[in-house]
Records
---
Amino acid sequence: MENQLNNDKLEITGRKRLAMCGVETVDGFSEQALNLTVSGMKVKITGEKIKITAFNKATGTLTADGIFNEIKYNAKKTPLLKRIFK
């Protein structure tokens, strides 16, 4: 898995063009959001007028156009008891 993490790349140009490497699947998309799986982690990208221009599952590359406002990576959270009793 460590090897996959090194292949991740995210590039946004002028908040209007997105290029991403390491994408495993496109879980859902609309003009307001892209839901992706990148190296086992869920990624949500929100904005306006989002349009996927290219996706190659074999290479894991994705490009999209639109106006991008927010990118969220959903990592697993540490259980509450482990955070309290360090």
---
Amino acid sequence: MTNHQIIFTAPGKAELLERPVVMPAPGMVLVRTAYSTISSGTERANLSGDNNISSERGTENMVHPFPRSIGYSSSGIVCAVGEGVTSVKEGDRVAVSWGKHSRYQTIDQSNVHPIPAEITMQDAAFSLIGTFPMAAIRKCRLEIGESAIVMGLGILGRLAVQLLRAAGACPVIAADPVEERRNLALSLGADLVFDPFAPDFAEQVRRATGGGVKVAIEVTGQGKALDQVLDCTARFGRVGLLGCTRSSDFTIDYYRKVHGPGITLIGAHTNARPAHESSAGWWTTRDDIQALLRLVVGGRIRLADMVQDVRKPDEAGEVFGRLMVDPNFPLTQFDWGAE
């Protein structure tokens, strides 16, 4: 078997390189990849050489030298299993969490999730990344009929729009400066869309919601966006900080915008969740993946509809080159040909 993997070999440079196939040790699974999904924010940060990024399984700052590799949300077919693996078998169709952009992935069985027959490989490749906004919404304890806003309409924001609608938010508001993204959000279920660069943005949102949103999912990771969304939030509202605000170079009037109106700020990094047992508002990754797949099977959300570009792995250099310069980078998956 010949294996190839997309590697960030230097800042701004991605290459498809040959790598050995690692046969599975006890507890491990070898998967032939079908699709892998680009998470533009995280992958742009890694590709740029940013060292202020979280480790895959923790939130501590680390020095990440090049070469780097990523691609944590994918799908594929099980090729082989190591001793003691009982959750999957050879030939199973699976979603993979915390894997790589690689033709073959050898990964712990805890990160391999069987998928129903109704789920396409393209849909399954969203499984892990789809749990990120799902966890943020759970932590905000959204109630049916409450208003909600999503700040930023990249991949996480588009997922959040659909999940908020499925969870019963009304109205669901989407905000992004790019008109194309706002129009896409409307097609995915947003009730209203606004340009956050408009001078009366906060006033528009407050007027549309009768005084402000109850729940806000901040996806951009930008301090200015957090400041803006606080202006849109109703008294006693909850703000889920889903975007990774890697720069601390911004200020917030916490007394007027948080303390006084009783706003709750919630850290919603995907690693800030239980590892083994779900409870109200706090679900494990595995349970959230199964919930996401049920929503797809039940027609509550549409994942493949969000895909704007599908590329072959040997186009990685071009794809990631565009990621570095295009603020409206299309939602892209790699097709590794395993179907």
---
Amino acid sequence: MLELTDRHYRYFARLLTKRTLLYTEMVTTGAILHNKPEKFLEYNEVEHPVALQLAGCNPKDLAQCAKIGEDFGYDEINLNCGCPSERVQSGSFGACLMREANLVAECVAAMQSAVKIPVSVKTRIGIDKDDSWEFFLNFVEKINCKYIIVHARKAWLKGLSPKENRTVPPLNYETVFKLKEMHSDWKIVLNGGVKNLDEAKAILKKADGVMIGRAACETPWILANADSEIYGEKLDAKSRDEILEKFLPYAKLQIEKGVPPSFLRKPLMGLFHGMPGAKKYRESISTLSFR
């Protein structure tokens, strides 16, 4: 998620959960190939396991970027075929690739040949009026990738903003569950509308994984029990105060390196969501710089 799941958020998330797989912001192949890769791929070692999410449509470029990502130490390479923004469409990336199954298959094959780490594809269940089960199934079967992350909504390429595309098209989890039933040997991860771990645990009875997006940023405390409730690990008790105290030395170091304080404040905004005084807390962080 652009400007949300950056390296500062991912460091913060690691204070809450050690086992959850984290994803980078979507990075275009052009950004990596035409700049110093570390500008976009730098991360902290504590972030592992962490996946690099790429946007592109040129098999050769995607293969090269996948290899660069592997060399940087990323644990997975993900190809985004689900983002509906007009900026992404203008580069023939994202959700519009659902109409280019043969091209996506070439991209996936090139990436798989270039790296030894897992390659996944993130997609929607349809685009515009191409939202039938047959259309979706044809796409996922043709691209020849057995690791699929499905945002269980279709995308409207015209007429809806990216924000509206996250809420207006109705969720259809059954399409994802049906895909898993048909391809039990595939790794199928469901994304879309999941707000807490209880919902995630229910979905995990029918899918291999759950991707939590906006809720993980807006209400990050839901991740605090992920390692124990999802992975069965016994962990030391945490408190929001403890997480905040652990993040501050990192924030101080980054600010000394020239990172704007606003980048460091953003991950913390939802930490006390739902708690007494949360509004005052957010106002304080919004108006004060770190000391």
